[in-house]
Amino acid sequence: MTGLRLALSWLTVLPVRGPADVDRAAAGRAIAFAPAVGALLGLAAAGFAWAADRVGAGLPLTGLLTVAVLALATRGMHLDGLADTADGLGSYGPPERAREIMKGGSAGPFGVAAIVFAVGIQASAVAALAGEGRWAAIALAAAIGRVAVVPACRRGVAAAPGTGFGALVAGTQSPVAGALWALAAVTASVVAVPERPWQGPVAVAVALAASVVAARHTVHRFGGLGGDVLGAIVEICVAVTAVGFCLQP
After folding, report:
1. End-to-end Cα spacing for the chain
2. Which of 19, 73, 199, 214 could serve as a FRET partner for 51 with CA atoms 20 to 30 Å apart?
3. pLDDT tens, 28-72?
4. CA distances (Å), 25 to each of 6, 33, 203, 230, in order?
């Protein structure tokens, strides 16, 4: 249960206290529980979207408020990580310079644009899903975003120099753990698009593949894995999954 408590304290605003001393073993257990925490966040997001729809908030506002609730529930740290990662990638400098920009504490033009696009895409997709009453799809999109961090922290991935969080979690996950969570996500997503049971698994597979590609590129670009990269991966995976669920081929 130590890993679950630590995951909740890291990934949510819930008043859950993790262990006083955190080593790589404890951090690895917390990352392994990240998808379970994602399921909790997904249920909260879907419940809020349902309530907003019932009180007549309107679809655009329901989508935007649901994304805002997720951001508040996670302290906005994933969006912050996305912005920092975008600024680092946009610097076109060496890894040392990119990491310095990411630690700067302010969002540059690439970071601002990344947040605008991520929030806009996610809110629009959630609004479309809410309009069809597909609350399970909303919950799954948020949960599957957290599944992506497990393969991102797989064995063989090094931490970026000077990243405390990256040093704790990089290389802590076995390939089996990532494969099992991915399989669970693909299986659960069968219910995301009831009239086309194949669409949910395809969307999840594409989203997880995109997150793996993004992780590999950023690890290569920054010289290793850091917490900002994990936040960016979460937001990318949520956006791709939600869009994939609401497409109507």
Report:
1. 43
2. 199
3. 999 999 999 999 999 999 999 999 999 999 999 999 999 999 999
4. 12, 13, 32, 18
Task: Identify residue 58 by its one-letter amino acid code.
Answer: G
Instruction: Read off the pLDDT of residues 111-162 as tens digits, 9 standing for 90 and up.
Output: 999 999 999 999 999 999 999 999 999 999 999 999 999 999 999 999 999 8
Residues 195, 205: Cα–Cα separation, whole Å: 19
Reported residue count of the chain is: 249
Q: Which long-range contacts (CB under 8 A, 24 or more apart) does 59-65 make?
A: 59/127, 59/128, 59/130, 59/131, 60/123, 60/127, 62/126, 62/127, 62/130, 63/122, 63/123, 63/124, 63/125, 63/126, 63/127, 63/128, 63/130, 64/119, 64/123, 64/127
Cα 105–chain centre separation:
21
pTM score: 0.94
State how far the alpha carbon of 47 is from the alpha carbons of 11, 63, 120, 171, 189, in Å: 19, 12, 20, 35, 18
- Is the distance from CB of 173 to CB of 192 less than 8 angstroms? no
Region for 76 from its dihedrals, namely left if φ exceeds 0, alpha if ψ lies in -120 to 50, beta otherwise: left
Q: Which two tokens stand for residue 52?
A: 């907003």
SS3 content of the chain, % helix, strand, coil (to 5): 75, 0, 25
Contacts of 23 (CB under 8 A, 6+ apart): 168
Which residues have a Cβ under 8 Å from the Cβ of 231 and sit 6 or more positions away? Answer: 77, 78, 79, 80, 81, 82, 84, 85
